[in-house]
């Protein structure tokens, strides 16, 4: 049995640690809080790293799409030039065909004239 003032008496765990129960609880709570904060900070750092990696991936994909779009624009430009060239050729063929039809009309008219003269003979 322990004698004397109960406030002056040490509990069994106080003999080893030199702290009272409220200090030990406070220290444990503070340690747990620090541990929780450190865990949250590590989690936040991990999240930031993941976000940075995600943004890098998005940026890379955007660059790839931009490059592909540039290639498509070049291809479209070549196709447009080819189309314009084809349109010019078609226009030239139309003009040539119109001239050929006029020439054939003249030849037909001359042949009729020659045929009529031959009939008169």
What does the model show?
This protein has 121 residues and is mainly alpha-helical. It has one domain. Helices cover 88% and strands 0% of the residues. The protein contains two helices and no strands. The radius of gyration is 50 Å and the shape is rod-shaped. The protein starts with 11 loop residues before the first helix and ends with a helix. The model has no long low-confidence stretch (mean pLDDT 80).
Task: Give a nutshell description of this structure.
Residues 22-31 have a biased composition (Low complexity). The chain has 121 residues and is mainly α.
Search tags:
121 residues, 0% strand, mainly alpha
N to C succession of SSEs: HH
- Which class of secondary structure composition applies to the elements? mainly alpha
First and last CA, distance: 164 Å
Please give the number of β-strands. 0
The overall average pLDDT, rounded, is 80
Largest sheet report: none
Strand-residue proportion: under 5%
* Cα shape: rod-shaped
**Unreliable stretches, pLDDT < 50, 5 or more residues?**
none
Radius of gyration: 50 Å
The percent range for helix content is over 70%
Question: With helices defined by DSSP (H or I, 4 residues minimum), what is the helix count?
Answer: 2
Tally of structural domains: 1
Which helices and strands appear, and what pairs or packs with what?
Elements lengths: L11 H6 L3 H100 L1
């Amino acid at each position: 049995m322990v004698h004397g003032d109960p406030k002056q008496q040490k509990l069994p765990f106080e003999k080893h640690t030199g702290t009272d129960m409220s200090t030990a609880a406070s220290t444990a709570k503070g340690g747990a809080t620090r541990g929780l904060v450190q865990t949250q900070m590590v989690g936040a750092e991990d999240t930031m790293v993941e976000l940075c990696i995600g943004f890098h991936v998005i940026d890379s994909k955007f660059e790839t799409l931009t490059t592909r779009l540039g290639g498509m624009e070049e291809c479209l430009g070549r196709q447009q030039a080819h189309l314009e060239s084809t349109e010019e050729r078609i226009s030239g063929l139309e003009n040539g065909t119109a001239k050929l039809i006029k020439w054939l009309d003249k030849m037909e008219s001359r042949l009729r004239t020659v045929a009529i003269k031959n009939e008169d003979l």
